[in-house]
Amino acid sequence: MAPLPGRAGAADLVTPCDADGSAFEEEIGPLLNIATRLATGMLLNTVEAEDAVQEACVRAWRHRANRRAGTDLRPWFLGIVANQCREARRGRWWSVLRMADVSGAAPTGPTDLSLALALRQALSQLPHRRRAVLVLRYYLDLPLEEVAAATGCSVDSAKALIRRGTADLKRALSMPEASS
Amino acid sequence: MTTDDRHDDLKARMHDAVDPMLPAEGFEQRMMERFRDRLVASPPPPERATAAADEARHRSSDPDYHRRCWRGSRYLSRHSGRLSPVRGPGEDSLFQRPSHEYPQAFGAGDPLSNNLASPSDDRLRAADFRELPNVRGWLGSRGCL
């Protein structure tokens, strides 16, 4: 079938369609730090977080043409990372290996040890979207608009998720609720 | 404790809980090397990955797409109640369409109305147009036969 006139690669709109991914690396490289922090906050495991970010990079490269022209790269990529973290937790190996390993690396400050472990435990028991918005908002300190874009919801929905998430944390930790 | 204080308190606690689990320094370079290895070892097929987006962009940017593409014309006729003048492959005449499509193609019960995409199409004026079962029935019910 002959190509239709005027048809061009959609990848050219957003990212130069390079076969070796070098231009894509330049775009994604500065975001690896924040993506790894997001994955660590979501999975609470260093190795799993690195794997999730790695997989998210490949997935983002494959679907780079799906990003709309003019949209910000950071929330788009963080959304992919968050989805990858959710898939990692859905896997069978997660329940086999990780149920007894919630604590992970020990916090550095001895006074905060129990609080940090309790917060990790409480975070690990939150639903995916609530955990995602809490990590994005309070750990990565992103504005509400980017939190909403990364989780694929409206700003009001993100606010509601944050409110419910902090309420859940408050119940789990018996700490004062932080509102957005 | 104000809202801002509680906000800052939760931020500090999140950092205390998660920061110790972050990878060691230089993990970005390590990730990039692994990423390059992945691409070299098993390069994803970009054509396949971008085909859907390419098609969608083309469909939205080409105003004549639905007239030239048979699937697009079927979409138009299904969603607008109008009959596209474009015929599909192997369907060179309007009257070869399945009978269950006739009422939809002719609009809401009025086969002679201008609810046709191309009223000037000579094929629509063919003699056997009046021999269609639903057209004949409609004309008969109005005493036109």
Radius of gyration of chain B: 31 Å
Order of helices and strands of chain A: HHHHHHHHHH
What can be said about the biggest beta sheet of chain B?
A: none
Low-confidence runs of chain B: 81-86, 91-120
Terminal Cα span of chain A: 55 Å
What characteristic shape of chain A results from the CA principal axes? globular
CATH level-1 class of the largest domain in chain A: Mainly Alpha
Secondary structure tally: strands of chain B? 0
Question: What is the percent of helical residues of chain B?
Answer: 40-55%
Rg over CA atoms of chain A: 18 Å
Count every helix of chain B, treating DSSP H or I runs of 4 or more residues as helices. 7
Number of helical stretches of at least 4 residues of chain A: 10
Distance between the termini of chain B: 88 Å
Mean pLDDT of chain B: 63
What this model shows, in words?
The complex is a heterodimer of chains A (180) and B (145). Chain A is an all-alpha fold and 180 residues long. Chain A has ten helices and no strands. Chain A folds into two domains: 88 residues, Rna Polymerase Sigma Factor, Chain: A; 72 residues, Arc Repressor Mutant, subunit A (Orthogonal Bundle). In chain A, helix 4 crosses helix 5, helix 5 crosses helix 9 and helix 8 runs antiparallel to helix 9. The longest helix of chain A is centred in the last third of the chain and has 19 residues. The N terminus of chain A is likely disordered. With 145 residues, chain B is mostly helical. Chain B has a domain of 85 residues. Chain B has seven helices and no strands. Chain B starts with a helix and ends with a helix. The interface between A and B is large, with 60 and 41 residues.
